[in-house]
């Protein structure tokens, strides 16, 4: 559902991505790039993890939402912004609107986790609940736009959102990393499309590869077929990648991405646990998909410098897909006075 912007808008350029980074500078973190020698040894290549799990609202979505809101004209801002989402885009848009001092109307399914509803409300977003199906979400959004005159900001299929997501890869290249390959997860395709454009402008020798769960592989199937194939009944632990690939995103990905590779949920869980154990950072399942792809296809990446965008860290720690010890397992070595916690 795209009913306010479109073809008359200028295309994304190298200059517009750099301008987007300057535009959103006060609203996002320049996230760090981390390394793990232990994971490098297992993977057989040098890995560079861009940590968007440390980003505002805990995900890369903060970039695209901020850019889209800040590019609105004064007149378009008057009635606020709106979207339907139960994920990271909901919180990202609510926060961007809060900083811009405009209202944000977020249509959320009634069965969305309460913690996510509270996150949106915490950023000043106005939550409108609906029945938990796509038709109800889209109708709810139409009603909100009609009643309040708010501008619809989609989560991924939107040029200004894609442009904002491209700033993540721009930071990698501006930091001087010369990568052979750069991988991102792919759901709706905003991050992958933005990353591919940034690489084509700033590091044309870097191959960009999408990483996708086998249980939600519409991007892979669309990429191979040459036309969009909507996802029906996705089934994967990577809940951030359940959406179908967007139309704008598909066109960009078709022209600028080298391949899209898939992995099983078991491989995703294994990679997720590896990052928890070796890097000591919190990531959500979607984040682990690119590492799982590298570990599954070691021969493709052997000896390379490989970048991985860790897309977010919003995970319910009580529902981790592997067993961990809790803080009750903290023990003290009385002789040394030191503490240690096992993961």
UniProtKB/TrEMBL annotation:
<keyword id="KW-0456">Lyase</keyword>
<keyword id="KW-0460">Magnesium</keyword>
<dbReference type="GO" id="GO:0005524">
    <property type="term" value="F:ATP binding"/>
</dbReference>
<dbReference type="GO" id="GO:0030170">
    <property type="term" value="F:pyridoxal phosphate binding"/>
</dbReference>
<dbReference type="GO" id="GO:0018114">
    <property type="term" value="F:threonine racemase activity"/>
</dbReference>
<dbReference type="Pfam" id="PF00291">
    <property type="entry name" value="PALP"/>
</dbReference>
<keyword id="KW-0663">Pyridoxal phosphate</keyword>
<protein>
    <submittedName>
        <fullName>Serine/threonine dehydratase</fullName>
    </submittedName>
</protein>
<dbReference type="GO" id="GO:0003941">
    <property type="term" value="F:L-serine ammonia-lyase activity"/>
</dbReference>
<comment type="similarity">
    <text>Belongs to the serine/threonine dehydratase family.</text>
</comment>
<dbReference type="GO" id="GO:0008721">
    <property type="term" value="F:D-serine ammonia-lyase activity"/>
</dbReference>
<dbReference type="GO" id="GO:0030378">
    <property type="term" value="F:serine racemase activity"/>
</dbReference>
<dbReference type="InterPro" id="IPR001926">
    <property type="entry name" value="TrpB-like_PALP"/>
</dbReference>
<dbReference type="InterPro" id="IPR000634">
    <property type="entry name" value="Ser/Thr_deHydtase_PyrdxlP-BS"/>
</dbReference>
<dbReference type="InterPro" id="IPR036052">
    <property type="entry name" value="TrpB-like_PALP_sf"/>
</dbReference>
<dbReference type="GO" id="GO:0000287">
    <property type="term" value="F:magnesium ion binding"/>
</dbReference>
<feature type="domain" description="Tryptophan synthase beta chain-like PALP">
    <location>
        <begin position="27"/>
        <end position="312"/>
    </location>
</feature>
<dbReference type="GO" id="GO:0070179">
    <property type="term" value="P:D-serine biosynthetic process"/>
</dbReference>
């Amino acid at each position: 559902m795209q009913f306010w912007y479109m073809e008359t808008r200028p295309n994304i350029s190298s200059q517009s991505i750099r301008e987007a980074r300057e535009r959103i500078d006060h609203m996002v973190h320049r996230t760090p790039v981390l390394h793990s020698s232990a994971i490098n040894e297992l993977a057989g290549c040098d890995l560079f993890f861009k940590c968007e799990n440390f980003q505002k609202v805990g995900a890369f979505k903060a970039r695209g939402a901020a850019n889209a809101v800040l590019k609105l004209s004064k007149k378009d801002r008057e009635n606020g912004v709106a979207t339907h989402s139960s994920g990271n885009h909901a919180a990202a848009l609510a926060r961007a609107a809060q900083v811009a001092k405009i209202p944000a109307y977020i249509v959320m399914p009634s069965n969305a986790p309460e913690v996510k509803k509270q996150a949106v409300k915490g950023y000043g977003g106005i939550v409108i609940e609906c029945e938990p199906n796509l038709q109800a979400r889209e109708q709810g959004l139409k009603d909100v736009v009609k009643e309040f005159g708010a501008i619809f900001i989609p989560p991924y299929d939107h040029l200004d959102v894609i442009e904002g997501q491209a700033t993540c890869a721009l930071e990698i290249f501006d930091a001087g990393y010369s990568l052979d390959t750069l991988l991102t997860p792919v759901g709706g395709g905003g991050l992958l499309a933005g990353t591919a454009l940034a690489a084509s402008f700033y590091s044309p020798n870097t191959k960009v590869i999408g990483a996708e769960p086998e249980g939600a592989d519409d991007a892979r199937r669309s990429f191979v077929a040459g036309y969009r194939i909507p996802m029906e009944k996705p089934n994967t632990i990577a809940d951030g990648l359940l959406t179908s690939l967007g139309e704008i995103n598909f066109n960009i990905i078709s022209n600028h991405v080298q391949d899209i590779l898939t992995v099983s949920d078991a491989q995703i869980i294994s990679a997720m646990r590896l990052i928890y154990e070796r890097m000591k950072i919190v990531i959500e399942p979607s984040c682990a998909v690119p590492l799982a792809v590298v570990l599954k296809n070691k021969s493709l990446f052997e000896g390379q410098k490989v970048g991985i965008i860790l897309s977010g860290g919003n995970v319910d720690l009580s529902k981790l897909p592997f067993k961990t010890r809790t803080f009750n397992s903290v023990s003290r070595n009385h002789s040394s006075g030191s503490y240690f916690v096992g993961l």
